[in-house]
Structures are given as C-alpha cells and as structure tokens.
Design goal:
637 residues, alpha+beta, 11-stranded antiparallel sheet, 4-stranded mixed sheet, 17% strand
C-alpha cells in the first residue's frame, strides 16, 4: 500500500475517531452526572491545591489520568483565568469545567489508541494496520466510554502499548525492549491494578524467545520485574508507602456482591464479556474474530502471535472475579478486535472466486456500516439533554426537595450515584408504607430499579416495592429517554441505529425518571432516643431515655401531611403521664385522644387538617419517679 495513501487514510480514521469521541464531551454540563468521575477529578483538584504530584486514592487508582488532569487543570487556570496558581474559588464556581477537561484527556487517549492499533498491525502489513485502526476508530463501546473522565480508556491505551512493545521485542530480543514492555505494564498498573495480568504475556514471550538459554531467560525475567517495580515506585511511590490502604482497597474491589453486577460464575463472566463484544460489534465481526483466531493458531503459527494473548489473559483472569461490569472489558474488547482484524486480513488476501469476493465485501460493508452508525448513535447520544437535567425545572416548580421527597439515586435530587428509595419503603400485610413522615413526593430512576430487575429471584421485596409505588402513587410526570435498541444482526441493527439517531435529535438521554405524589400513601416512623437530644433534666442510655422528675422530652420535629395518625409511646411509668402534641416550636397545639394508656405504653390518635412542620411530642415528667421512654412510633391511618 502506497505510503501517502496510508498516511491519508490514517489521518481520516484519526479524524473520524476523534470527532466521535469529542462530540458531546460536555454532556450534562454544568451538572455532574457520572458516579465515578468524582473519584478522579476531585483528587486531581486536591493535587493542584496541595501542590503535590502524588495522586491520592487507591480504589482505581487512575494515577496517570489524575496526574495528567492535575497538570491540565493548572495550565487551564493559567491560560483562562490568568493566574499562575489554582484558586479554590474558581474550583467551587466552575467545577464542571474540570470534569470536561478530564473527559477530553480520556478521549485523547482513545484517539491515540487508534494510532497504536495501526502500528500493532503494521508489524504484519500496512493493510492489517489500517484494518486494526479502522476497527478501533469506530468500535461503539470505545466511543461511549471515551466520554467519561475515568481510567477505562486510558488503561486500554496502556494495554495496547504493552502489545506494541511486545511485538517490538519479538523483532529485536533486547534488554531495552523487555524494559519497554515492563514500563508499559507498570504505567497500566498504576492506572488500574488488573493490568498486572499483562505479566502473563511477558512471561510467555520471555520463555518462548529464551527457553534455550536459561541464563538469559532468568536475566530478562529479573530485569522485567525490576523495571516494573522501579517504574511504579518512581511514578506512584504512595502505592508502596501506603500498601495497607492499597491492599484494603483491592479486597473491597474484589467483593463478590454488587447490586446488578453479580450472580454469574467464572464461565458466566467470560460469556458476559463475549456477549458485550457481540452486542457492540455484531455477529459478522464475531465471525471474523473466530476466523482470525483460527488463522493465528492453526494457519499462521508465528511466535510473535503470542503477544496477542495479553488481552485474553486479562479476560480469563478478570472473569474469575465475582462481579462483572461492561467497562472492565475494555482491554478484552481490544484483544477481540485485533483477532477480528486478522480474520478480515486473512479473508481479503486469499485467492477466491468472484462470488466469494462479492459475498466477502458485502459482509465487510455491512459490518462497517453497522459499526459506523452504532458509533454515531453513541456519539449523538451525548449531545442530547439528560433526563436528570430536563426534570430539574419541573421538580423545582413542584416544590420537590430532599425534605419532602423520597428518591432514588440517579435522579435530579441525587444524580451522581446510587441511593435506594426502597430503604424508605416497606410492605406490611400487603400494604405499601413510607418509612418516613411528611413525605409528599417520590422520584424513581430506572437506573436503580433496573439493577434490582436484573436479579428478580434475589430482590423480590425491592421489586414489589417499586411495583406498589407505581400502583399506589399518583404519577405527576415522566421523563423518558430514547431507548436505544440493539441487535447482533447487522441489517437489523443498522435500521435501529438510523431510527435511534433520528429520535435522539428531539429526545432525552439518561434514565427514565418518574415523579409521584405519595401524600395519600400511609407512612410510619419509629424514633429512638440518643445523645440527650431534645431532652431537659434527664439522660439517654443505649437508646433508652430517662426523664428525671420535672424533666421534659420533646421533638422529634417531624413534618406531617394532612390526614389521620396513630401514635404509640413505649416505656415505663407512663400510666399517669400526660403528653402534649404541638407544632411550630410548641406555639400551636394539636388535639388528640388517648385510646389506651398503661404503665408501658400510651396509644393515641390525632387528625391534621393541613400540612404541618416541626411536629413534636412533649412528654413531661410531673411524677416523683423517673419516667422511661424506649421508642415513639407515628403511623398514618
């Protein structure tokens, strides 16, 4: 292939891939909607504020993207705000800008990975390099995740760098090249710990190319380990200095349970990542991958092919974890793409009949069209308004806030992470109750309910609560996104993509948001006593309140809707106690009737004819002995 043509095609692929990755990069602005970006951005900000290049935090750890982000933040502040230092005031008023900067860094690494893919393929031929670069430039899941300021795309870049240096080592078996492989593996490891799995490929390469000279094998193996450790110490010494924190975080990340992401075996996780690849690439790309695998293993049995085991080792080992997430598979999908590119290359370089060629090129056109349109759809998706943003004005006009509303995570009241509306709901005797008083509204997000629905046998109770909420609550508003459809069959998926792109031009992205009026749903709440709060002349011991003679218990300052309520005060020496019910800091009195009163409890009922705030129960002790309170339960009836 002519050099000028290669350069032009490569520039075209870079332009297309970069546009798809950067288009919509400011999605959600000025709101912060991604649950994990804060772990990177906030810590990169703290690095600049504290004047350090040591990246805090160990859960990802994302040390490369944090460090690059911190440099970019300082440069941005200098250029845009004309200040040579980082101002905390600038940070507070424009925090979302720094999220966009980190997303741009992620997108940039994604675009550079296209170049790496070309150079990896070029070791075989320029044609193979172009095929690999093409697949990386328009693979839909890479387009999507390049829009997030998290380490998944950067770690894919470093895994590809490991493969590139591995190929260079197979051409020139030198200490320098084995050092480069270890260097790239170390960079990937400080970005995400599982990249250490790449050492499996390093071991295979070193053994395969040095098994006849054991002394050389040992020397190169030791050098690889030394360079790996030395690089990590040089770049992120805190990973060693705070090894206990690192170990603790690794243990946490290796937990076996996470809502919506567990329940699969090792084999199930392996299939999950394969299925994700097929869902994004289509059945034809998967077939090309199978052909490529056959080509590499059985037809072209070259020693250098061992470097492509890197992503597959990652796939085999990471799947042994109890959890599975789509984003964890990025280096795996890269490995699958490399193999698929070999399959395409093998087919187009074979001599065959005209009809076979026609069928092949029809398949290639279908596969390419499918990938391009799917990637365009993913890119356009980020230019639309998120439902969490679209619903903000509505809930403001309705007076919904955190005080009078129960809500899921990934809703306007809590957009950046999980929160469980089901923790505030209960089903007793087939009836739905709200375990909080004074709540008038509920906001539900499909991004939470779908996680429970992913494991219906395990979360029967939570799913029934969502169903009861939909049945009992009065739906006030619904904000539904364009539901992106997908098929593993190219022709069908092309039709879906065209329709989805059209729908997105006038639709929303994000989860489905449902807003309910729940003022008619029964509610209850039990209060216990601690920390001597709302108490004069007495004390709290282990949840039990002791009111001394002449003392007073008051509170709990609840907000209550209009309706009828029952209350039970549990304790001791309550037979002669006369409670009072008030609102507005004891200014107004609420009338009530005692239905039953004994030494151990007082049962009473009262009606509210309007919404009240700061409802409190006053329990005075006018006796000569201590009054004991154990709990107080208010229930709507």
């Amino acid at each position: 292939m002519n050099k000028k043509i290669v350069v032009l095609v490569l520039l075209l692929l870079l332009s297309i891939g970069s546009f798809l990755r950067f288009n919509g990069i400011s999605w959600g602005y000025p709101y912060l909607l991604h649950p994990d970006e804060g772990f990177i951005v906030n810590r990169a900000i703290s690095m600049v504020e504290n004047g350090t290049f040591e990246a805090p935090g160990y859960e990802t750890p994302g040390n490369i993207i944090k460090k690059v982000s911190s440099v970019a933040y300082k440069a941005f502040s200098s250029l845009y705000y004309h200040t040579s230092f980082f101002s905390s005031q600038i940070d507070v008023t424009n925090r979302a800008i720094y999220y966009i900067i980190t997303r741009c860094i992620s997108a940039l690494f994604g675009s550079l990975t296209i170049l790496l893919a070309y150079y990896i393929g070029r070791y075989k031929s320029k044609t193979l390099g172009i095929i690999m670069a093409s697949l990386f430039s328009i693979f839909p899941i890479f387009i999507e995740h390049a829009h997030y300021g998290v380490p998944d795309i950067t770690v894919t870049f470093f895994v590809c760098l490991v493969i590139l240096f591995g190929l260079e080592y197979t051409q020139h078996n030198t200490y320098f090249n084995i050092s480069l492989i270890s260097l790239a593996t170390a960079l990937g490891t400080v970005e995400k710990f599982p990249v250490v799995f790449s050492f499996g490929m390093i071991a295979l390469v070193v053994i395969l190319y040095n098994y006849k000279t054991i002394k050389e094998l040992i020397k190169q193996g030791l050098l690889a380990i030394f360079v790996y450790i030395f690089t990590i110490i040089l770049i992120s010494p805190n990973l060693f200095l705070n090894f206990n924190n690192v170990y603790s975080q690794v243990v946490i990340e290796n937990r076996s349970s996470h809502l919506g992401a567990d329940g699969l075996s090792w084999g199930g996780n392996l299939l999950f990542y394969i299925q994700t690849f097929i869902n994004n690439g289509g059945i034809l790309l998967f077939v090309f991958g199978i052909i490529g695998l056959i080509y590499l293993i059985f037809i072209k049995k070259e020693k250098q092919n061992v470097v492509f085991t890197c992503g597959f080792i990652y796939w085999l080992l990471l799947s042994s974890r109890g959890l599975h997430w789509e984003r964890w598979g990025m280096p795996m999908y890269a490995a699958f793409l490399f193999v698929a590119a070999f399959g395409v290359y093998f087919l187009i370089t074979q001599k065959s009949t005209m009809w076979k060629k026609i069928v092949l090129y029809i398949c290639l056109v279908l596969c390419s069209t499918n990938l391009i349109l799917s990637s365009v759809k993913n890119s356009v998706y980020f230019t639309t308004t998120d439902t969490r943003v679209a619903s903000i004005d509505y809930i403001g006009k309705q007076g919904m806030n955190k005080d009078n509303t129960i809500y899921d995570g990934y809703t306007p009241l809590y957009p950046t992470g999980p929160a469980y509306i089901t923790d505030t709901l209960a089903i007793k005797d087939g009836e739905l109750y709200i375990q909080d008083l004074g709540k008038q509204f509920a906001i539900e997000s499909s991004q939470m309910s779908s996680r429970f629905n992913a494991e219906p046998d395990r979360y029967v109770g939570q799913i029934s609560m969502y169903n009861a909420l939909k049945e009992k609550g009065e739906l006030l508003a619904n904000f539904s996104p364009v539901l992106l459809r997908r098929s593993i069959f190219e022709i069908k998926n092309v039709i879906y993509s065209i329709n989805d792109i059209y729908q997105l031009t006038n639709g929303y992205s994000g989860p489905t948001i449902n807003c309910y009026d729940i003022s008619r749903i029964k509610s209850f709440k039990s209060y216990t006593f601690k920390d001597n709060k709302w108490l004069t002349n007495g004390k709290d011991i282990d949840g039990t309140r002791i009111i001394y003679p002449g003392g007073l218990s008051y509170g709990p300052y609840a907000n209550l809707n209009t309706g009828k309520y029952s209350m039970i005060i549990y304790g001791e020496h309550l037979k002669e106690v006369i409670p009072r019910l008030t609102t507005d800091n004891a200014i107004n009195t609420v009338e009530f009737s005692i239905t039953e009163q004994k030494e151990t409890f007082i049962r009473l009922e009262f009606d509210l004819h309007e919404y009240v705030e700061n409802f409190e129960v006053l329990v005075p002790n006018n006796l000569m002995e201590n009054v004991i309170l154990k709990s107080l339960t208010i229930k709507s009836i």
